[in-house]
Amino acid sequence: MNTIPSIFNAPVPAYTAVGGSEPAASTGVSAILLNRGGRYPRRTLFQELEKTGFDYIVSVEGPQERYDVEELSLRFPQVRFILLKEALSPGEQINLAASELSEPLFFVLWNDLRILHSGGAVRMAERLLLPPEEAAGGTPPGRRLCTAPLIQNIQLETLPTLVAPVFYKGAVNTVPFVLEREGAASLYPFDGVGVYDRERFIRLGGFDGMLKSPHWQLMDFGFRAYLWGEEIRATQVIRLSYNSETPSENSTAEESYRRFYLKNLAPVFQGDGARIPLGRFFTYLFRSGGDPFSAWAEFAEGRRWVRDNRRRFRRDARSLSGLWDPVAGDGA
Description:
Elements: E1 15-19, E2 29-34, H1 42-52, E3 57-61, H2 69-75, E4 79-84, H3 90-99, E5 105-110, E6 113-117, H4 120-128, E7 146-152, E8 162-168, E9 171-177, E10 194-197, H5 198-204, H6 214-227, E11 232-242, H7 255-265, E12 268-270, E13 273-275, H8 281-288, H9 292-308
Parallel strand pairs: 2-3, 2-5, 3-4, 7-11
Antiparallel strand pairs: 1-4, 5-10, 6-11, 7-10, 8-9, 12-13
Helix pairs in contact: 6-7, 8-9
């Protein structure tokens, strides 16, 4: 399974960076803008982000030609355009954009989202850059891995974007719920949207670029975060809304699920580390649906990966569901 793909040791995709030479502020918060497509007024979008007060804005552009990049880079010197040579998954785009930044926090959003309320980048920094000793009782964020916003649809109805894991007959499912209390836990940030602590993000290894399914990429990120002692919580202070239809998630169990299973569901935490028992091979063989030889090669690679990272585990997957109230989905 190789090492955890990291924004510092994964193969760097081919890209060109344009602009982003002058910071607009010095709040310690920058923005990463992912582009889903559609004809959105880019100048207006950058103006709105500029008013929010981010230090820099990294706009990740797909491999298609963009004829307005030079003009926009002159008008918005704080915007750095990442021009991809090939299509990348959302997680890979976030990894790449984060490697272009040095600020303590970065805010990931899409071009079909607009910020309704956030208090600006200064307010984000004030809330999220608290040193641990000032985060008394765990109520203030205190540099958590990721803080997810409240998200509404185009009719301004609050969406159930928080996620709790549920285990049933050896399989994992998710239950979405609406943010009703400040600081509620979520397994992962819906659509990848949220404010990330860059240092913790790097230490975790970022998103796994070998998982091409956006859903399983998010599931892997969230499980790995909690299994390794990090947490993802939501805030009502930052509110966003979609300008178009809410994106759906495809949770079909395919090749990405097999890698997710070996990294997150198969390990057992014992003593001061984790391991994958040999006896779990037969479960994996049944779930993979492949031939025994290929399944064994994948299983053995997964065991090596867990062995290499065994000291980073703080719990195993079975204990995760206890972090959410079965009714409210609220973290402790």
